[in-house]
Amino acid sequence: GPLSGRLLMDVRLGELPAWLSTCDFSPQGLLGGVQKAWSSYYDKYINVKRGGPAGISMLLAGYCLLSYGWNYQHISKISFLVSL
Fold first, then answer.
1. CB 3.0–4.6 Å: which of 1, 4, 50, 68 could bond 22 by disulfide?
2. Cα 38 to Cα 44: distance, rounded to the nearest angstrom
3. Per the annotation, which location comes first and is thus the protein's main one (predicted)?
């Protein structure tokens, strides 16, 4: 695609000076860039889709691991006594 439409991560090192020359460094252009970056960050990390079976299963798996860790000494004493 055109160089001005690419994101920074899609620009090759040799194309960087040409890409920078297509950027708008006016106050309005910089504000638009900050707003676009914030919107991208918000959509990726804050406004994520919630729910579904994957989230619930990870929550249950985490609870099982945490519960096992809390009770490890108690469980290891019981299993030692049972093996006698």
1. 4
2. 10
3. mitochondrion
